[in-house]
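REVIEWER CHECKLIST
Item 1: Sequence provided? yes
Item 2: Single chain? yes
Item 3: Sequence as submitted:
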Amino acid sequence: MRSWTAPEVPSLTDAGLPEAAAPLALHDTGSGAVRPTLRDAAPGATARMYVCGITPYDATHLGHANTYLAFDLVNRVWRDLGHPVHYVQNATDVDDPLLERAEQTGVDWRELADREIELFREDMAALRVLPPDQYVGAVEAIPLVVEMIEKLRAKDAAYTVDQDVYFPVAADPRFGEVSRLTREQMAPLFAERGGDPDRAGKHDPLDALLWLAKRPGEPAWESPFGEGRPGWHVECAAISVEYLGMAFDVEGGGSDLAFPHHEMGASHAQLATGEHPHARAYVHAGMVGLDGEKMSKSRGNLVFVSKLRKAGVDPMAIRLALLAHHYRADWEWTDAELDGARARLDRWRAAVGAASGPDAAALAAEVRGHLADDLDAPAALAAVDRWAERALAGDQDGDQKGDTEAPVKVQALVDALLGVAL
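Item 4: Structure as written out by the authors:
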């Protein structure tokens, strides 16, 4: 499946700014600590990242955008440090919510998925999110899923209930290390997030579906264990292992994916390959709310990126509104968020249009330092605010002439690291 068009990212050294130095540290859910990424990597080594994609039964809402912008910052910081980035993302283009929405609306499920994936591509391109190297749909990944399930079966890490294939969590002695939840904490989340704890015949209420046998009127594919379609967790496990191998650097997504999705995916991959870990770090973005609830398709309390764009909102203002919150924070969207972002964008554009400005190298060091510290984008934005205020006020570091190249350098800095085109 094709990705979307990549924006051009300025080289900050070509723009006349010093090279980046501080390594990127991120909060790892599995350890509960902020830790440096690429700890054992040689300078310039490729960074590997997998981010879980959308189930395309509706357009991109701001909760989605918040997550993908967080990992876009990861991508940009790594690249600024001189690391090529191998980035993979999936799209769950066959799953219960998609099939249910297709039936409700009378649209073929494939047509619905294709339409919403295309809209997602347009939204990501408008927000200047760097595209994945491989953008992989669940349907095209079915051979990979079948192969992984076969490996699990060979290791007695799969069993059948009425022709559906399940993964026994008891097979993985490390189960629970990603989310660090107790079984008591897992149980309600499993039921809430797509699990079937009450299914008769399962060995354990937490056992996860690997393969759903064909149901009347639903799409199905051939496999050694009968016609059917993939479970959700094994899809991402199979895609990530195929394209990135094991022990890749970051697996990312919203905080609601830590359990069961990332927990189960890690167990599937580790049992199938016999290797550990699946990912070196599990990084999770916070939830965006509206009207007192998490913004989600199931609740219908959504603000869509495409609708904001259609209403004439500058995508860079949308981007700034999201970056104004730390990526791990839960927060609520209001119209004031967008008003503040528009005002900030106007100030920044006016400042980089000035004839001169304060030292850009000092600002670059500050912005890089904030982003390297667990992506503290709000602090980075505040640093640019202070630079812009001084540039607009004619405060030039004691030099009445100022630096005539500073505005151009800051424009490149904001573009390369924050993804905001001024």
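Item 5: Key structural point noted by reviewer: The CA atoms of residues 88 and 243 lie 7 Å apart.
Item 6: Recommendation: ____
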